Each structure stands twice: as structure tokens, then as C-alpha cells.
Amino acid sequence: MQVEKNQNRYSFEEEIANVATHGVGILLSITALAILVAFSSLNGDVWHITSTSIYGTTLILLYTASSLYHGIPYSRAKQLLRRLDHAAIFLLIAGTYTPFVLVSLRGNWGWTLFCLVWGISILGVVLEIVSKKRYKRLSLGLYLGLGWIILIATKPMLDSVEAGGLILLLGGGLCYSFGVIFYVWKKLAYNHAIWHLFVLAGSVLHFFSILFYVVTC
């Protein structure tokens, strides 16, 4: 098993758990996209539809890239998928911000955050695709920093989003952040599957924040 883990990073059993956890994420993401677009069409306008479509698409991309990466044997394709998996994290962070900044905030704050978040995310995607691990720590720092950059707009968010939505948004961010502990805990068996569960939990909390406090509020 140790030789197998040296090549594939995770044992066969761990990879099954990794695929299963984010395979569920694919199904939930497709459902989330359908629900958000449907309710946006009924209750919102083009901003609601566009922003939730972006968010739902980035959800699907993340869980699909992750499942494909963990689901195929060690190969060059697996290494490429690993980069795409990590790049998709940046896209999901930006996608999650999009409904809040284009619907709840909009105006100067909304568009400033939109450009800032997507600009940093695109930089992160480029680093992941071309770096071959050279900027691993920088990428991790960008993930966390980007995830909490909304704090610079605390007052506008308090004025624009109800308390319940902010609590769900904060809870999702904490799930992602605490999950990083297990992501870097390489010696723990099934550490990556546990990280996946935290990601799923964060996604669920953010979905409900967007559904109830951005789309149908």
C-alpha cells in the first residue's frame, strides 16, 4: 500500500472515498443549479439568473474536476486533472461571491469586489495550470485570502444581506477554512475525503444562503 500511495498519493480505498464524496457533490450541484435558476426566473431578473448560473456552473466544475482526478489511475492525465481540480477551487470561490456582489451589493462595492475577486481567481487558475507545484503555498494562501476578502465589505454586506444569510455565508467559509486542516494533514488516513466533506458542507451552507437570502428574499 505504501508504494501505491507514493505514486497515487492516496490508497485505492481512499480514492474510492474521495470519488464518492465529490460524486455526491456533482449530483447536488446539478440540482442546486436547476433550483437556483428556476427560482431566479420566478422571483428575480437577469442579474439573478446570470449570477446564479455562474455560481451553479462553478459548483459543477469543481466537483466534476475533483471526481475525475481522483477516479482515474496514475497517469499524465491524472496530473493535468489535479491542476484543473485545484484551479476549479478558485473558480468556485469567485462563483460563490458572484450572486452577492451582482445582486445584493451591486453598485460601486459590488462591481469593485466582482473585478477584484475574479481577477485574483484568474491569476490563481493560471498559477495552478502552469506552475507544477512551484506556487503551492501561494495558492493555498490565495484560497484562504480570497475566501475572506469579503470582510473588507462588512458594512455594505450587513446593510444588504439579512442576518440569516450572513450566518450561513460565514458558516460556509468556516467549513472551508477548518477543512484545510485535514487537507494538509497528510499522515491522517482518509484525510482528503474528510476535507471533501467539509467542502460539501460549505457548499450546502452557501447554497442556502444564496437561495433564501439573495434569490427569494
TrEMBL record:
Residues where Zn(2+) binds: H70, H192, H196
GO MF term list: metal ion binding; pore-forming activity
GO cellular component, one term: plasma membrane
Cross-referenced Pfam families: HlyIII (PF03006)
Transmembrane segments annotated in the record for this chain: 20-42, 54-72, 84-103, 109-131, 138-158, 164-185, 197-215
Membrane-topology descriptor: Multi-pass membrane protein
Domain of life: Bacteria
Keyword Coiled coil carried by entry: no
Predominant cellular place of this UniProt entry's protein: membrane
Family the UniProt entry places it in: Belongs to the UPF0073 (Hly-III) family.
Protein name as annotated: Hemolysin-3 homolog
Provenance organism: Desulfamplus magnetovallimortis
Lineage: Bacteria, Pseudomonadati, Thermodesulfobacteriota, Desulfobacteria, Desulfobacterales
The gene coding this protein: yplQ
